[in-house]
Structures are given as C-alpha cells and as structure tokens.
Amino acid sequence: MRREVTLRDVAELAGVSSRTVSNVVNGYANVTERTRERVQRAVDELGYRPNVLARNLAQGRSGQIAVVVPYLDTPYFSELLQSVIRAARVSGYNVLIDQTDGDPEHERAFIAHGSRRLLFDGVIFSPLGLDQQALADRDRTLPLVILGERASDGSFDHVGIDDVAASRLATEHLIDLGRRRIAAIGDQPYATGEAAQRRTRGFREAHAARGLTPREELIISTPRFNRPDGARAMEHLLDLAEPPDAVFCYSDLVALGAIRTIVSRGLRVPEDIAVIGYDDIEDGRFSNPTITTISPDKEMIATTAVDRLLLRITSESPPPGLELRAPFKLVERESTTGRVSPR
Amino acid sequence: MRREVTLRDVAELAGVSSRTVSNVVNGYANVTERTRERVQRAVDELGYRPNVLARNLAQGRSGQIAVVVPYLDTPYFSELLQSVIRAARVSGYNVLIDQTDGDPEHERAFIAHGSRRLLFDGVIFSPLGLDQQALADRDRTLPLVILGERASDGSFDHVGIDDVAASRLATEHLIDLGRRRIAAIGDQPYATGEAAQRRTRGFREAHAARGLTPREELIISTPRFNRPDGARAMEHLLDLAEPPDAVFCYSDLVALGAIRTIVSRGLRVPEDIAVIGYDDIEDGRFSNPTITTISPDKEMIATTAVDRLLLRITSESPPPGLELRAPFKLVERESTTGRVSPR
DNA sequence: CTACGCTTTTGCAGCGCTGCAAAACACAGC
DNA sequence: GCTGTGTTTTGCAGCGCTGCAAAAGCGTAG
Questions:
Q1: What are A270-311's pLDDT values in tens digits?
Q2: In what residue span(s) does the HTH lacI-type domain sit (chains A, B) (predicted)?
C-alpha cells in the first residue's frame, strides 16, 4: 500500500509552504485567489485528503460527539438517535453510540474521567440510573447534555418535555372519557432516575384536579418500560378483584404489552379498558388498536440537544446549564376513543 | 484548565524513560516486575490516562469501526446494532454509526475514498441501493463486511441468511396450511439490491415445489419494507376482485402494516387472511395477532460480521472474501396458525 | 526614498504517542 | 575476567497536522 498523500506533498507540487496548503484546505480568509487556485489544482491532482487523526491530535479535539442511551433497540431512542445523527452531521460532527443496558456502573464510567476522553468532544446522555453522586463526580471538563431523567444542576443542560404536565394531560384524558378506575403502569418509586416519579406525580395531580383520589393498588411499578413489563403488569391488574377500566402506561411499549395481555384475555380495548401510552413511537400508529399517546417533539429535542452541546463545546467559558422544555401534545387514537383516526 | 498528564510526566516521576511507561501501560511482555510496579504507582499517583488521539496518530489506526445502515429506527437494524456494539466493545473497538436513508449517493460516498477515511478502521455496511459500480470504485484498502443485500465478489465478506431458502420455507408454511391465493409484499424488481429478488425467488420456488403457480397480480412491489408500505400494499390487495387468503411479507414491519389494514377493514387474521413476516423483531411477539415469521440469528450475524471485520483489519494480507451464512428458523405464531403461542 | 500599516506567506515547534534499532544490563560458560 | 546470548530499557524520529509568531510582500503616505 503506497503512502498517503500529505500536506507536504501538495505544498511541494504547488510551490508553497505546507501551512499555506493547510490554509487553503481549511478555507481560511487571507489567501489570494491566485494562491488558492494553484494549491487547489495540486490538491486535486494528487487526490489529497486530510488525515483526520493528525488534525485531531493537533487541534486536541475529535470532531465526534457520543450519544449514550440505555437501550438502542427501544424505538423511542432509535427514533431520537436518527434525528441526533442528522443534526450532528449538519455541523460536521460524527456520532459515536454507546448503550449502557441501564447499568449504573457503565453510566457512571461514561461521564467519569476516563481513558476514552478525547475520543469525543461532548456527550448527549440519556441515563436511567445515574445518581447525584455520579453526576457530582463526573469529569466537569466534558461538555454534557442530559435527556429525560435528571434535572440540571446548572453545570449541564437538560432537554425534555414537562413530564408532570404531560402525564396530567394523559390522565385527564382518561378521566374525561368517564373512566374512574384508572391504573398507572411504570412507576419506579425507588429509582434514582426521576422520569417515572414525575409521571406518577402528573397522574396524581390529574386526579386531584378532578376531585378524585387514585387507587394505590392500581399504581404498578415495573423495572423497565418495555413490552414484557407492560404485559406482566397488566396480567397482575386483570387478576385483581376489581380490575381497572383504563390504564396510563409510561411508554408506548408498556402500552403495547398491556394491550397484548388485555386482548389475549378476550377483553376489548377501549370498550373494556382504555389504554394511553407515552412517546408516540411508530408502532403505536399501526398497532391494533392504534395507541392514544403523549407525543413529544423528538425532532426538537434532538436538535436542541445537539445545538446546546456544540455551543458548550465551542464556547470559551461554559454557558449556564439550562432546563430546556420541548413541546408535546396528546394524540388521540383508537385505544381510548375507539374511533379510527388518521395516522 | 490545567494540562493533561502525559507519558513524559509519568516517566519523570517513576525515573524511567517514557517508552518504558508506554510499555507498561500497554502491557508489553519484557518489563521486570520491579519496573512495572514503580511505573504503575506513578501512573496511579498522577491519574494518567493515555491520549487516544495521539495513540491513533502514531499507530495510524483509530480503534473505531463504522456501521452504516439505511434507517436506524428500523427495529431489525437497531436490534442488530445492539449486538454489533457489544461485540465490538469486547475487542476494544468503538462503533461509529451512520444512516444513509437508503440514498445510493450517500452509500457510495461512504465506501469511496473519502476524507473520513482513518476515522474508522473498517466498515460494516448494510446497503440498500449500492450497485456493482459503486462496489468496484470503492476504496479497496478499507476493510469491508456487507450485511444482507449484496453477494461477495471476493474482496469483502458477506454475512446473511439464505434468503431464498428462508422465503421458500415461509411460503411453504402458508401452502401447507391450505392457502392457495398467496400474495407477496415487498418485491423490488428494479432495485440494485438483491434481497427482495431473492425473497421473490424463494416464493416462486415454494409454489413450484408444491406444483402450484403463483398469481403474478398478487406479487406487490413496495419502495421500502416499512409499515406504511405494508398497509398501502394490503389495501391494494383487498381491493382486488379476488383478494388473497394469505400474505408473505418481506419484513415484519410490512406484516404489521398489512395486518393493520386487514383488521381495520373488519377482516380477521389468520381466519380470513394468514400473514407471515420476516426478521422476527420484538414488535411481532406482542402485536395482535402475534406474527409468524422467519427468525434470523441476529446475534450470530452481528458477531460474525464483527469478527470477520476485525480479522480483515488486523491481518497482513487481506483474507479471501467469504459468503457467510447465519442460521434461521420459522417461528409459528398467531398470524398464521391462530394458536396463541409462547413468546 | 523611507516609513508604516495591513495582508499574505512561511518556519518551526509540538500535539502525545509508538516503531525501530541501538544501548545497557544480566547472567552463564569458559 | 571476558565473551556471548538473551532480556530489559532507552533515545530518537516521526505520525500529519495546526498554533503561533515572525517574515515577507504590498500599497500608501509623508
């Protein structure tokens, strides 16, 4: 394999210094048109391509951002990632992906001072079990944007929707349909993450706002927000003496699992039990029945996260850590209204 | 921000040369226990972390592999990616992800000689529209493993299941259930990729093997293998004078879309129309009904792809390009048998 | 003609590590 | 004590680029 073409080779051919070639390649301002043309010709003739590794070392940055999610195969995350990758590419950044399987140790390692530092210039992080201690111990020189779980302590940005308000909206929707025995699937009272608790709070607030009291035995905890957990929780609910007539699921996957259980027991959604989900993943638009859900603006979450992270990376003094709220809306589909709805 | 600790700093403290520190850090053999200990102590005391960028430049490799998929939010790919990331991490490689949106130009750019070369040491590529020309023009110094579409020309490895045999098995399953008007959704007769054609071939072979002739008007082409395409194709089929009594869908997503259409027209699956899918994604294990499907061994596909790629990266002379076949099996669920089946 | 300020180009050091080959050391045998 | 062999350590160059500061060029004013 013959040696790669370097800046020096181009410089020699063009009869200028290698620094000038660098200036041309990087589009710096102060280069005369004549020089630029001459260099460009040499670049083209030799087929020169900058060596990214060398540039990285010289600049002390990698041009990469890492995105860390618990599970890559969760549709919510893969849909989000898709937008993150697009947004990053627009700014010339590559995206390195890692999944933690929700393992707190792994999560902690990722933002601690680590050997992988410098491999990425910043991190967009969607933690599950990250506790305050891990956040406090983290590498503070590493630009960080957190999605979902943790409120900002001022040293990083947090992007997400207002979970309490969204959950309240979802629950009120069920109440307003006339349902009175409403279950909630997905609480995690002992988790270090906060998203589940915020949803439960919204669930309670909705009841309070309508002068109702939620039944505690209908609030079901699950380890994760996936289909099997939703299916299991629903089985438990159906085995109660007085099963619910509606369920607020903390993710669409949970809703899909719950619906599966309901249907396989010969009950109907929404006639017997209305179900509402959270996330608005594509599955819910094609399932039987289609799922009413809270739809966060994922595109905005992704672009906001990337923009803030790049700002953090490029700015001299670290900008203040912000709480950034993306909009969300309630999308009514068959699983609560029974009406066939447009996708 | 204070300067990072370098090899030289450690060397100074330990009273050895920086090269020796490097040897210790990298676990080379010929270092006496005494020296190793002394150096290790210095490393710990200073909290030294190797600078990945510098190492990359010196070694001329990045320790990263790129995985290129058409759509990240397609469950088949995200499930596969999950396994690829795990397998790569075991060998100390990071995974850079890119999605092409199926754009042939983007796909071509990725394997052509490019400025991003050196950012990754090899590529695992799942192309959609890559043609022979693009493959021929590619950067041949870039280790490459292709998933799915393209058979190997000997200069790269190809990992996948036997699509013809799998499709034949799927179709025979429908025939053996007594169905005679069997449709196929997902053909792409003019695509540059080969997967769709191979599935259609298996579909035809199954008919031939049973002494039947497939009805051409029941073989439906779709631009992609997703839910909306499946739903649309099914609408077309139901509008025919003689609709099918079974459908072989070229992906589970297509099957989900098709089932959605069937159910929303008031028909039943499988009583009126049996549906079989392809890929065995989690959605199909929780949908209503659950989906009978061809289940490729994704874990094996992922680990095989990573192993072969790393072999290609590390070996002196390029190994021969192989055709590697992963096993698959037929998983019977409700959408064809009507029986409630274990997950 | 010289001085001055501005634009363009250059030279060099150095980012922090590893490859290579030579040097130093250790030990055994004569 | 000296030689030879094998092990351990070292020094240096260099990966290919960019930051920095100095040098060169260039035009205008005095």
A1: 999 999 999 999 999 999 899 999 999 999 999 999 999 999
A2: 5-59
